[in-house]
Amino acid sequence: MNAMPDERPRLDAEEAATLAGLAARVRELTEAAVLTGVDAAEAAAVADEVAALTARLGAERREFPPFAASPDGVRMDRQLANPVTGPLNPLAPPIELEVTSDGIVRGEFTLGPVYEGPPSYVHGGVSAMVLDQVLGMAAAATGTPGMTATLELRYRRPTPLGVPLLAEAKASRVEGRKVFASGTIAAPDGRVTVEATALFVMPQRFVTSQY
Amino acid sequence: MNAMPDERPRLDAEEAATLAGLAARVRELTEAAVLTGVDAAEAAAVADEVAALTARLGAERREFPPFAASPDGVRMDRQLANPVTGPLNPLAPPIELEVTSDGIVRGEFTLGPVYEGPPSYVHGGVSAMVLDQVLGMAAAATGTPGMTATLELRYRRPTPLGVPLLAEAKASRVEGRKVFASGTIAAPDGRVTVEATALFVMPQRFVTSQY
Predict the structure, then answer these.
(1) What are φ and ψ of residue B21, in 5° steps?
(2) Distance CA B188, CA B191 (A)
(3) Which sequence ranges are marked TM in the entry (chains A, B) (predicted)?
């Protein structure tokens, strides 16, 4: 039941850019659907049109989400449809992460009303999802990508919606197939809103990893 | 910057059902966009059609996501567009949660390829997001809803995509504005894949809460 990397469709940069554009439009549609105030007849008519577009996209359907064609090493960002960072996934904000030469993973992102938990604030689970990904990338940047084994989050203050947030993480220690990492989300004033620590473990069968 | 509950649009059951249908169609479109294998010209043409539908929905735009018109007490499920449970939010699987008479919150759900982390498995951050919500509902079920203060996750085995998963949680202790809760996600064979414990704290200004 585990899909091996070689089974994954590979997209070149141009194909990926076209599908990223499609995902960006679906992301905008998602927000419009959550905030729309049109009447029920119009909402139902739009829903029918959406179903027709789904059928058009489904005329050719892949079995698995695609990977990038030219991975630069063992990196999670091969996953073009990752639910946090993937430009091809309408669920993802998305977050573009950079890895500095000293192994810090960093990305700026803004979360709109579709990610809301308490009114005007980011859902606590969404912050957890983002931090799992960013810490996981920091683990992968050591050359030992892994699956999350433990993740601990401390929410220091509410995380605001609609403003640029900064996520950062770094691996602190590698022990064989285990990598320890920590990171934060910070508000535009620089104050940390959520702190995380995690342990990632590379499964033995993934040693030539598909991440 | 905090939106007070009275500012939120309220939807009656019929309006909510129509918009839930729209969200379900956008959810299907999201999956189709991630898995489509149509050529670039067709993907770009569909993207243009999606943009036109976004414009139609945006003809009347609310400032905030809507709440249910008839809340049954202080409950997070008033949030029709919650990113985990909200039937009106295309990002949400969604998960319909029931609260038993002894305070257990429980819901079955299936996660498709848009929630993928490691190939064929649920993204660790998505499991974290789901558990934050389910434990938060268990906290709210005590009558003391709160914001996440700490969340600790232990990943015992990979969580499979495409099969029915069971999320369960229960509050263990209430101390003033603090509620401790724990819960799990289990695979169809009954084995727990992820365990979580959390502390939720009701902000003092939310004592007549908008959750």
Answers:
(1) -65, -45
(2) 7
(3) none
HSE (side-chain half, CA atoms, 13 Å) at A158: 19
H runs (alpha helix) in B58-90: none
pLDDT at A172: 97
Are the CB atoms for B54 and A53 separated by under 8 Å?
A: no
Q: Is residue B66 part of a domain?
A: no
Please give the DSSP secondary-structure letter assigned to residue A125: H
Q: Which two tokens mark A63?
A: 């079995």
Strands A67-68 and A10-11, sheet pairing: parallel
Cβ of A42 under 8 Å from any chain B Cβ? yes
Confidence grade of residue B69 (pLDDT, cut at 50, 70, 90): confident
Tens of pLDDT along A113-137? 999 999 999 999 999 999 999 999 9
Shared-domain flag, residues B30 and B75: no
Q: What is the pLDDT of residues B108-130, one digit of tens each?
A: 999 999 999 999 999 999 999 99
Inspect the interface and report whether the beta carbons of A81 and B34 lie closer than 8 Å.
yes
Residue-wise pLDDT for B15-54, tens only, equals: 999 999 999 999 999 999 999 999 999 999 999 999 999 9
* Minimum mean pLDDT range among A96-100, A169-173, B6-10, B188-192: B6-10
How buried is B78 (Cβ within 10 angstroms: 0-12 exposed, 13-18 middle, 19+ buried)?
buried
pLDDT at position B173 over 60: yes
Residues B116 and B153 in one domain: yes
User: Within the 100-139 window of chain B, which residues sit less than 8 Å (CB to CB) from chain A?
Assistant: 113-121, 123-126, 128-133, 136
Smallest CA–CA separation between A131 and chain B, in Å?
Answer: 7
Residues B98 and B48 in one domain: no
**B142 and B95 belong to one structural domain:** yes
Three-state secondary-structure class, residue B6: helix
How many domains does chain A contain in total?
Answer: 1
Cα–Cα distance, B162 to A7 (Å, whole number): 18
Based on the domain organization, do B24 and B75 belong to the same domain?
no
Tell me the backbone φ, ψ of residue A160, rounded to 5 degrees. -75, 145
Report how many Cβ contacts below 8 Å link chain A to chain B. 326
Cis peptide before A94 (omega within 30 of 0): yes
Cis bond before residue B90 (omega within 30° of 0)? no
Distance from C-alpha of B209 to C-alpha of A160, rounded to nearest angstrom: 18
d(CA B39, CA B180): 51
